[in-house]
Amino acid sequence: MKPLLIDYAIDTEQPKNQFKYEYDFEESLSIVLINNEKKALIETNNQDFALQTRTKVYDETNECNVDMINMQTKTRVHQENDDAYLQLLDMTIKTYVKQERDDESSNNLK
Amino acid sequence: MTKVLIISNKSDITSDFIVKQLKEKEIDFFRFNTDELTKTISCTLDLHKNSFILYDTIKKEKVNLAGITAVYFRRPELPIIEYDDLNRGEINLIQNEILFTLEGIYKLLRKAYWISPIYSIREAENKIFQLEVAKELNLKIPKSIVSNQYEDVNEFYSNCDENCIIKPIKSGVIEEENKSKVIYTNLLDKIPSSREQINSCPNFLQSHILKNGDVRVTMVGEKAFATMIHSQEDSKTKVDWRINQDFLKHTRIELPSDIHNKCVKLLRHLNLRFGAIDFVLDKNEEFIFLEINPNGQWAWIEKLTGYQISHEITNLLVNESF
Questions:
Q1: N or C: which end of chain B has fewer CB within 10 A?
Q2: ipTM of the complex
Q3: Any idea which GO molecular function terms this record carries (chain B) (predicted)?
């Protein structure tokens, strides 16, 4: 029989959308590409998220016409909400797993 | 002249906030992503020459550890070792070699100013120890027990009017191959009839406190950034706000001076320069100490409240005033 504590385990949630970013070795921080320009992930905002989504949709459906792309983007963004960007960044900063590890000074060094 | 070493990993976005501050203040720094050691970063620790160097092969930068005056210790991780010709045991051996090299580097940096000293962080991470210290400093704590003795757990539950929470003593993360699970703080439904369920692991139980909200106090030296997390506005977050953080309101609050002073004392007692302290604000507006995260997350608090936490951490790295 499992210890009592294990009865309370729940599945972790993963973020529904991912802001695409990468670590920039020259800048020593994570960046996103917005219209081919580098921007620090921590300085991005909702507008950047929308722009990146638009680019992403375009990449994925590059045979669609522009109106179609814009419609898709608007729908997606609308379905989220004004704070979508903040949620995503928030998730990045403290994904459930990492946030739960608030009390640990390292992730895999134990 | 100040030279800051950030010890973390590439994915640690919180360190990005410090990088940004250091750049703005034109403070010399190097971000040592330990997951890059053996990849883009190499080291030579020459004990004969007393020369201790990190090499950044991308930036073509050479960092002399003797020149480091302050260390911001965040979330070091080990590099992923992927060589087809190594078996699991050999990979473990290599990882241990890297781990002990890192530990050696931390020791070599012992004269620098750390936020926070690594061995203090490790000691302070234990929740049982934290509660003992908090109580000693006259912070109010919930009735608490850690036990795998069936009768004692039962008695504690009865003494708390059968209104207790159960939570992990360490981290609640259960990592499985393709997914992970987590254990938050939960209301204990009942004491199980099976003794085995109690005996097979120490159980951390506390009296359940009805609250007006949760308070996260981010301490940077003597400065307190207190935030009310309005956990009682959503039924899912009443017991543990972390379960559904989306859209949970966060507001700045002023800490009573007595609680502020005790938070400073707690840091000093634990030899920490930073701490993320969790309180419950009970129905009588009393602050009840839950725990301190000696290396806790703070970037989301800065984002949501506008508190200048990264600015304060950077100041502390430069001024070494606590």
A1: N
A2: 0.89
A3: ATP binding; metal ion binding; ribosomal S6-glutamic acid ligase activity
